[in-house]
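User: Some background: our group keeps a shared notebook of sequences we're curious about, and every so often someone picks one and asks for a predicted structure to add to the entry. Today it's my turn. The entry only has the sequence so far, pasted here. Could you supply the structure so I can complete it?
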Amino acid sequence: MTSTYFRKGFGLKGAIESQLASDYSSRVVDALRSGDYRLAAGPLEFRLAREFGFCYGVDRAVEYAYETRRQFPDKRLFLVGEIIHNPHVNAKLISMGITILAPTGGGDFDFSAIAPEDAVILPAFGVTVSDFRRLRAIGCVLVDTTCGSVLNVWKRVESYARDGYTSIIHGKYYHEETRATASQVTRYPEAKYLVLFDMTEARLVCDFIEGKGDAAALAARFEHAMSPGFDFARDLVRVGLANQTTMLSGESLAIASEVRESMIRRYGETALADHFRTFDTICSATQERQDAVLRLLEDPPDLMIVVGGYNSSNTTHLASLSRDHAVRTYHIEDASAIDVESGALRHQPRIKAGEESVTGWLDGVRTIGITAGASTPNNKIGETILRVCAVAGVEPVLP
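Assistant: Of course. Here's the predicted structure to add to the notebook entry:
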């Protein structure tokens, strides 16, 4: 593309490194790393999952946003939605003079305030094909921080669309990444997509593939999660599986297997290649963080704290993974969820369940597991540990 489109940085990493370190580093997290991911604090022991916090894609997106501010000191800067799902990182960008454009209830963006002389940052989740085209038409500078793992999913979905396969996407239909991924099929006028949230929805679709479902009921169920004009009888004959990169990998693979078996029962194994395609599109960082939690839980701590935005998909799935292994788990957004004076803790008990407050959560606790989603900076992990120590009346042993 022209010089108004940038994807590979401005070569300013050295100029912003000290600011990034000041904004996001943590002495406490450094101590955990150097202490084999364990930290003593009086009778308490903190155990940090060995893969946690900022992933490469998030690091890149945040660095690129900082570089953009440095590269264009006199331009108005806009960001299409949140750069990542962490309120502190987004607040920091706002403090740097970057205007975050909020989507409407339908997920659309109003770009009427943007002029050709402005610069616009595209978030790590990417943007829809339609939004990208609208921004290109304005003629403004575009700085694209879309994660490489997301781009890999887009390539997969586009290949399905090109070859006449409906894209079945395991994800949340309202999530920015899934909206952007689903939009890739619009490059091919006849292509279709369907978004499945979980195995329950997958089994409904599988029943229909096998001739046992009700198209009208499915149309009502997936009203907001399918492409316009979706015809369940026509558009489920040939399907390709993909997923939002931050979903639970085990569930994504199980859904793909379930659809595959339904296709075999309907069309026979010899014809499977004509009706079914799949590819594991969980990103490596998501997988590594999930695997690290599972390893930590092999020797279960007394409780688990997961730090990160409530709207962060990969963070909520880390919390779910811990709960599924019968460990008492608290998903908190940041250290402010822990009140030192009262000892109460505010947390989100389940995805989109709203906050609850608990007391006595440290009673009898000696080992505390800690992890954080890929959009959580180290300083927020360190602040959480220090706040827990303050409630317990202990001091961490730092080198």
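Suggested note for the entry: The chain is about 40% helix and 15% strand. Residues 201 and 221 are 9 Å apart (CA to CA).
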